[in-house]
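Good morning,

Both structures are done.
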Amino acid sequence: MASLIYHAGALGDFITTLPAIARWREDRPAERHILLGKPAHAALAPPFDETWDTEAAVFAPLFAGSAASGSPLAENIGSVTSALLFAVPSSPLAATIERLGARGIVRQDPFPAAIVHIVDYHLSLFSPEDPAKPPVPRIHLSAAPEAEDFRETVAIHPGSGSAQKNWPRGRFIDLAARLADRGSKICWIVGPAEAEIDPLPGGDHWRCLPLAVLAGRLARCALYVGNDSGVTHLAAAVGSPTLALFGGSDSRVWAPRGPNVEIIDSFPRGVEAIETRDVLRVCLNFLKEK
């Protein structure tokens, strides 16, 4: 028996599904669990028995609706006894795998149509949990930690998947300089979206690190500061003290959840409305508590 879980979205979107995926797996302890998604994301979740890369050509027929009966791919899909698909209604995936023999298919739109926190939205597929304990995504850290000490490090990620979510670059630079003056070590997180941008001054650079490595470092930082981004959700989910800046998206839906998260929210005025002094004040409060 096999359970297929499909999610091919961005990092932050995947992290918000983790509590729902955990519930799905708990309800199916006897099944083998297969992720059809991004291998880099699979490394952040409790181990899957298999990971099928959605970018691999062998799986393209599932999304084109052209998977042939009797093919090796069809045989694999035919063994699926339950499937949780985070997919839009127009996706042919559900119909395709049903035609190939998959059973127990549950599909959910990746994004809510109403104002509800995204984690709670995904968990609406299941019976309600204790409302006094909002569910929190947890990242699976399996690798041994690096020897380097990050206890004095403030990690800053100035990017995101959308320019309208980004706090002005100059304010991030000003914030970093003020924190460095107070003794913090600054590490800039540079992902693929920022790789071509001029280097940011006044600190080290973590460039395009594997997600599992980045997660391990963030878990040991004194503080993380970032926009509404996948890396911000990653920091919150590994338990790093996290300050998230919102202005281009609704924090009621997209705020990261974690054991030590603060939000500065200027939605819908725009993230430019957030002042450096306000961000610095919250950062210093975090650093006093560590």
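Second structure follows.
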Amino acid sequence: MLQTQGNERSKVTLAAMLSGGHTRVGFAVLQQLTTVPLSFDPALSQIDNNLRLVAALGHVEELRRQLAANPELREPRVFPSAAQTATAHALLAEQGMDESKPIAVFITQTFIAQRKSWRAERFHAVAETLAREYGMQIVFVGTKGDVAAIDELRAPLTMPTANLAGRTGILELAAVLQLADVALTLDTGPMHLARAVRLPMVIIAPAWSPAVEWLPLGNPRARILKNAEMPAATPEYIIDEVSVAEVEQNLRELLKLHPPRSFHWRA
């Protein structure tokens, strides 16, 4: 079963054929190398496209039964270990975060060529509202290359903040997210980790990226704010069509459904 869709697809398909596998299902460029070739359906999400691999192997009815019984099976999950969770606790304590008080994670940086940014002053306004109304502390996460940009963004804020950019591996970051109450995030990699630990979140989505491809459509813990459509991003594009008021209202609604410091919803 071949599910990679990167530039290495043909190499992986050829390796599977040479290994002697009798059934080779995949999204292959050279479809003659597979026994059950599939073509990517842009009308479906990445997850639903990958679930087609299971169906192609003859498990259609079982797949339908399992998804009908538990729609959450469509959602990715990660499970940090006790050691990774201990690292997350230590990192939060090191930066002065009090875990008896609410924590919001902000994911504010993406690769610049992706054109998925939201203005710093808007992040500031939302952070101050969360601190004033819920006593939130703000934890910023990202890559090592995001450290300086995050420090610049958080400098004007009046509530306790932490910058964990570049301080975690993937599962340590998942553990940090698991200790938070809510997230405000751009459409970027760490958003999928927040999704996988069932963290309620508001996603600020760009107009040029198809929502069906990666965003968690139909997830009751995710509010996707995508207020425009365009075929491609212009060089100066910023997600100005998503307002502070809209973000704040959706965060309030999520926090009403999942009150801060109540962890029963992650079970």
